[in-house]
Amino acid sequence: MKNTVEIVELRNQVIIDENNNIVEVLERPNNVVIQSVGIQGVKGDTGGIGNAYIEIPIGAVNGLNADFTLSFLPIENTLQVFVGMGAVFKDRDFSLNAQIITFFTPPLLGEIITTTYNY
Questions:
Q1: How far apart, in whole angstroms, are the C-alpha atoms of residue 92 and residue 64?
Q2: Does residue 14 sit in helix, strand or coil?
Q3: Each residue's pLDDT tens digit in the chain (119 positions)?
Q4: Beta-sheet strand order (sheet of 94-97)
Q5: HSE of 71, CA atoms in CB hemisphere, 13 A
Q6: What integer pLDDT is reported at residue 116 of this predicted model?
Q7: Burial level of 84, CB count in 10 A (0-12/13-18/19+)?
């Protein structure tokens, strides 16, 4: 089996590994739209179909701002958030109200916030 991904729109570059973990962020990406994400099984089996989105949410990363806006409404339980290269967790580190992420402690000045989710 292998993962299959079709990137339909790319603005700047995010490098992800075979487990869809962010390995490196180049030129601070704004948006990457991925379609047809799934596990490919035996020949002829296309795997699951869906839309995934990788982005840096909109919001000032100044050490004071705690609110960041996503481009789309995430499907429930699909949102992953990373500050720097570390994962943060809903209800422990941030809340989500529609497309707004609110961190309980604002990210430090200049930290890169990256999200992945299905919509």
A1: 19
A2: strand
A3: 444 444 444 444 555 666 666 665 555 444 444 443 444 444 444 444 456 788 999 999 999 999 999 999 999 999 999 999 899 999 999 999 999 999 999 999 989 999 999 88
A4: 67-69, 100-103, 94-97
A5: 15
A6: 92
A7: middle
Total number of domains constituting the chain: 1
Length of the chain: 119
Residues with Cβ within 8 Å of 91's Cβ and at least 6 positions away in sequence, in order, are none
Instruction: State which residues form the domain around 38.
Output: 2-118
* CA distances, 80 to each of 2, 8, 102 (Å): 22, 21, 14
Q: Which two tokens stand for residue 30?
A: 């704004």
The percent of the chain in helix, strand and coil, each rounded to the nearest 5, is: 0, 55, 45
